[in-house]
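Our collaborator T.R. sent over the components below with a one-line note: 'Predict the complex.' Nothing else. No constraints on interfaces, no templates requested, no preferences about which chain binds where. So this is a plain run: every listed entity goes in together, and whatever single assembly comes back becomes the starting point for the next discussion.
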Amino acid sequence: MVGMEAQYEDEAREGPRPAVIMLGLFFLLLMAFGLSLSLGSVHIPLAALFGILTGGEVSSPAWAIIVHTIRLPKAITAVLAGAALSVSGLQMQTLFRNPLADPFVLGISAGASLGVAIVVLTVGSVGSVLIAGLGLMGDLSLAVAAIMGAAAVLGCVLLVSRSVQSVMTLLILGLMFGYATGAFVSILIYFSVPEQIQSYILWTFGSFGGVTWRQMPVLICAILVGLLLAFLCIKPLNALLLGENYARSMGLNVKRIRLWILVSASILAGATTAFCGPIAFLGLAVPHLCRSLLHTSDHRVLMPAVTCLGATLALLSDLIAHLPGSQFVLPLNAVTSLIGAPIVIWFVLHRKNLNQAFS
Amino acid sequence: MAILKTQDLAVGYKHGRRPPRVVARDIDVSLHCGEFVCLLGPNGAGKSTLIRTLVGMQPPLDGRVYLMGRDISDMSAIEVAQVISVVLTDRIGVGIMAVRDLVGLGRYPHTDWIGRFTEEDERVVSWAIRAARAEDLTCRNVAELSDGERQKVMIARALAQQPDLMILDEPTAFLDLPRRAEIMALLQDLAHSTGKAILLSTHDLDLALRCADRIFLLPFEGALQTGAPEDLILNGAFEGAFQSDGVRFDADTGAFKLNAQRGHASVAVSGEGRRAYWTKRALERAGFQVRDVGAEWCVTIRESGTWCVEHDGLIWEYDSIRDLIAGLRG
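Returned assembly:
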């Protein structure tokens, strides 16, 4: 009996301690951030990079411009978007107790898509009035359309969630909202000319490169608020692991917490989709990878881990999409899924504990 | 003072504008410190509905539930959680979690915003694990526990919440007989040693009659009756609550008996001890009416371990119960 106990203790402590893994993840994030500033169609040595960032001596003014206007905002966007999508994915998987849940199960990306589709695809037919109107907002127009679309769907879901008892009903409603908005997009596409369709499809590919310094404060604020809410929900999320009935019996106001989790996840996913397009896969995969790496479902550990790893993987995906040293750029969504799917498959097959996560 | 008290409680379901479906009504019960109470009743009588209403998972259709003298509908979830903890039949999919962490979730109403543990919390969790006799499970992963082990862990979690009242919905379902007896004895012991009130619903009539201080008996249609198990047997409450075509509650043995089919002969068994007991059981099972006097057949159990049947002056002898029954039927 004593031997058995010792064996289980060994199993529980298998691998490095969570604190070590967390530190490792953080260094990985710093490294990925450095690499994404240094690598690209033009290679900027790390030493020069340091000079540019600290405002020191700059060996090439062109490099400074590349870093300041292109790579730095892109890297910051990638960090924010990766963290946001992964955290909201984790929230959705726990709330719905479903391993396939991701930030977009509530139809948020579909709503954003509809907003963008309306702007991009109706510009030609409605005419220049609309463009002129949007011109006031300048380069924010697409983001604003996406935010409005996401917010409309989110509003519907939240409104319904107040009167819905079962979280499963909510999940199905979210999916249905998604299909319905998708149908509207199809109709819009059907009546559009190829050029418009192409610019819409470009948006659906996803990109971290579209956020300018002017838009950056909006994105930063939205995501920080979302993350703050998410971190405040850590304890309730742990209680929700036992299901809503047990959570309620432990003193949780389930309906209120559910609302806060939905609001937080929606802000995170909505803001990201608005500025970067519907980025697939990160929100689904990162929580699974973290559970498997850290061998726990405890959100006190998972939440910071997911934030770090999500940001890192977003940076790396973007790096790969830009094929360093070449002039080609691959669609970001293709990269996240093409690189991500094999990684997750490998994890599922080699670390059996992934199956336990939702047993 | 009663920890929990109900007044004219009616439980059931309400869907939209349709008239509510009342499952049980006029329930007036109370629970006191250190009491181990079993809620019994046939399927569909509303045991689960009553349990769900008492723990606040669904609103009562009528009447009130008082907790420590306060109306439960005026209390916040966290206030209720400090008085009642529950073990439900819900499937728990907690993911990758050590047993100790799961038990630690019971500290939820006592910890700060992020769930940090004080020394006191650690101490209570260790105590709860010991009290539920789950020490050897501490470092196991919840996903790999057996049903019986998981039930112990969920009891430990409920204990860690430090309630005055624990309510358990069919905690012995899905367990084998030794495990059921173990869980019931554990809960009885907890109620008496910690002074907590424990209420559980169960289908395990025999164990409930042997362990419970009091029984809440909920018949299919009719008023809930309470009392010591033996009182409810003697006043015929059990017979009334569980009557059906196929079986009847036998007040002599405190167990269910299958109703004898008509048309079979009556048999008297003479003999002592275990062999006689199981012979009677076998004859009842086979549909014979076992009676002591005025029987058509008479079975005598011999010292040598064989069965003798006398009828109209003829004697048959059998080596096993199986042959005996075949002989009587033939």
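Summary for T.R.: The mean pLDDT of chain B is 89.
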